[in-house]
Design goal:
GO molecular function: hydrolase activity
InterPro entries: AB_hydrolase_fold, DUF1023
Helix content: 25-40%
Keywords: Hydrolase
Protein name: Alpha/beta hydrolase family protein
Number of helices: 7
C-alpha cells in the first residue's frame, strides 16, 4: 500500500463552502482540470516506475485509487499520461476530464470501479459534464479561465464502469450535501469494504456479496402498452421519453440496509 501525495492539489475547504466559493483563486483551482492534468503526469511516472523496479517471479497487481479531485487526477494519469495498472478505483469523483469513458483508461483486462454515495454532492458535479460549467463560466466573464468543469460522471450508465455500493450509514436518503464526501474510508463502511476487496484482487467477489450498485441514469417515462375499455383491450404503441433529470437507484434503498458493520472477520 502506497499513499501518494506527490502533486499540488487544490486548496478547498468543504467544511467552509460559503467562504471557499467566494475565493476566486480556490474556486479556480477546484473547478478546472489543470492541476489534475499536471499531477496525473507525475503520478503516471511514479506508478509506471513500480513495474520497472518490480522483482520476483509473481506478477504484481496494481490498483490505483483516487478520491475527490484525486480521482480526476487518476483519470488523467491513465488517459493522458499513459499510466499502467491493473485496476482503477474512483471514489467521490467530480469528473474524469480527459477520460469520458472507461475505455479511455486503457486497462488491459482491468476495470474502472466507482464508488459514489447518492448523498455525496461532489459526486454529482460531473452530471453536467463540462458543458454547463463552461456556459456559466463564459456568461460570467470566464472567472475560472478558458475551461471550467471536470468532465464526465463515471457513476453514470454508459461510462463502462463497475459501480459498487458506497452509501453512508445514518445519512442515507437525505438531500445530497458535502459532509458525505469524506466518509468513504470510514471503518466498516460499504465503500471501504469494497475498496479492500478490489485492492487485493477480489473485485469479482462484489457481485456475490451483493455489493454492486446500479448506475445513475436519466429518468425515463414510458407510456402504457395497452388500455382496457368496455369493448376490450386496445394495444398502444410503446413510447419512452428520456428526461434531462438524472436519478440514482441507490436513493431507493431502505435506510436499514445501509450499515457500518462491513468489517472483515
Amino acid at each position: 500500500m502506497i499513499a501518494w501525495m506527490g502533486y499540488d492539489a487544490p486548496a478547498f475547504e468543504f467544511q467552509s463552502l460559503e467562504a471557499a466559493v467566494t475565493d476566486p483563486t480556490k474556486l479556480q483551482q477546484v473547478g478546472t482540470p489543470w492541476m489534475a492534468r499536471q499531477g496525473g503526469a507525475v503520478l503516471a511516472a511514479d506508478v509506471n516506475g513500480l513495474a520497472v523496479t518490480h522483482e520476483g517471479g509473481t506478477p504484481s497487481h496494481v490498483t490505483v485509487i483516487g478520491h475527490s479531485y484525486g480521482s480526476t487526477t487518476v483519470a488523467d494519469a491513465f488517459a493522458n499520461s499513459g499510466m499502467r495498472a491493473n485496476d482503477a478505483v474512483l471514489i467521490g469523483c467530480p469528473g474524469t476530464d480527459l477520460a469520458p469513458s472507461a475505455a479511455d483508461f486503457h486497462l488491459n483486462g482491468g476495470r474502472v470501479y466507482v464508488g459514489a454515495a447518492s448523498t455525496d454532492a461532489i459526486s454529482w458535479i460531473a452530471e453536467s459534464g463540462s458543458a454547463v460549467p463552461n456556459w456559466v463560466n463564459d456568461a460570467l466573464g470566464a472567472p475560472l479561465g478558458p475551461l471550467a468543469g471536470l468532465g464526465t460522471d463515471p457513476a453514470h450508465e454508459g461510462f463502462g464502469s463497475v459501480r459498487f455500493r458506497a452509501e453512508v450509514a445514518g445519512t442515507h436518503n437525505v438531500t445530497p450535501w458535502f459532509n458525505d464526501h469524506s466518509h468513504y474510508y470510514n471503518k466498516g463502511s460499504e465503500a471501504l469494504h469494497n475498496i479492500t476487496e478490489i485492492t487485493v484482487g477480489h473485485g469479482d467477489h462484489l457481485a456475490r456479496e451483493g455489493m454492486l450498485a446500479p448506475h445513475r441514469a436519466e429518468e425515463r417515462i414510458s407510456s402504457p402498452t395497452q388500455i382496457r375499455t368496455p369493448f376490450g383491450t386496445i394495444p398502444l404503441p410503446h413510447v419512452e421519453v428520456t428526461t434531462p433529470a438524472t436519478v440514482d437507484p441507490e436513493w431507493d434503498r431502505p435506510g436499514d440496509s445501509v450499515t457500518s458493520d462491513h468489517d472483515f472477520k
